[in-house]
Amino acid sequence: MTEATKQVDSALVVLVDKSDASTIRQSLTTMKLIDDNFVIKEVNSAIAIPILDAEKVKKSTWFDNTKHEINELNLLIKNQKYTPAEQISQDMTLYLKQYFDSDLSGLIANLPQKWELFGDLAIIPNPAMNNSQWQDLFELITQEQEQEIWQIIAQALRVERLARQDKIATDMMRTSQVKMLLGNSGEVEINDFGVKFWLDVTKVMFSSGNVTERHRIGNIDMSGEIIVDAFAGIGYYTLPMLVRSNAQHVYACEINPNSIKALQNGAKLNNVEKRLTILEGDNLSTMQQVYSLADRVHLGILPSSKKTWQSAINCLKPSGGKLHIHMNVEEEKIEDFVTYCSDSIAKLAKQLGREGIVSVEHVEKVKWYAPRIRHIVIDISVK
After folding, report:
1. Which parts of the chain register pLDDT below 50?
2. How many domains does the chain have?
3. Strand partners, 42
């Protein structure tokens, strides 16, 4: 752990046995009696917890003169430049030393180094604290001790709830597989660039990596336009188009009931529900309800939206409109794919009796999806 300045100073502490340290620390935290300016220290077989008021500590129900001692010790001053990951490492090391004399290096090395924040809820990656040593540890300890471990992570990240990410399911609904570790509810509200989203992270996913594309779409003036969003989800693009782009109306296609609930709640939070129609079911069927209505069709699905290209063209008004086509493409093949995409749209339009001028207006490289694989969005005009 990096310590930029190892400054020490005299601190008032309560010395407690290792076996009681976690419970007492929680009690002192609740009573707001811990001096957060200092680092908790191991002293021989005891733990020195820095405190603010000796008399109040002595009046605590757990305090016992025969077991606990209040003293002054030189403690390391907390370095405010500690990263949350460093704080997790420090606090977890102290906690684990209360119960285990064995080598902790494998456990400490597997602590989370990154996470996603959703208000007061943090989601750690699936591999974090999930190696064989952690799995063996969780088999040995009590449920209360496991909750104390998650509480240490949450406190370092300054959140109330904690969850672990798993792979997104490969089913049609792209179901979230997040598991709650601390706290019971996965419901969160997110404010992203002036747009409010609602979701339950245990039931649906939120694509944090697409933030720049959400902002780009929201920056397009769609005043007076009718939009079809073929893969609405919780409203990643539907809501920015309504709130920021000022679309007249959006028809949002979605098959996942949990995503529909999230989209409905998000629309209410943004006060745009009157300009939103949700078409529930398989979009290849529901898009037929809005043929020839749209000024713009958004096809936001990965790795490929190709199966909906024909339906998207049918949704455009007879005078034409714009398509936003999301795809995963190998970096060196992007230029060729854009040409292929444009030619394919032109051929489909001709087959549908809607032959016209097809042109590529913009290609946006959103993010790296995998090594050498780019998530791109192709903006195509069909006139």
Report:
1. 1-5
2. 3
3. 47
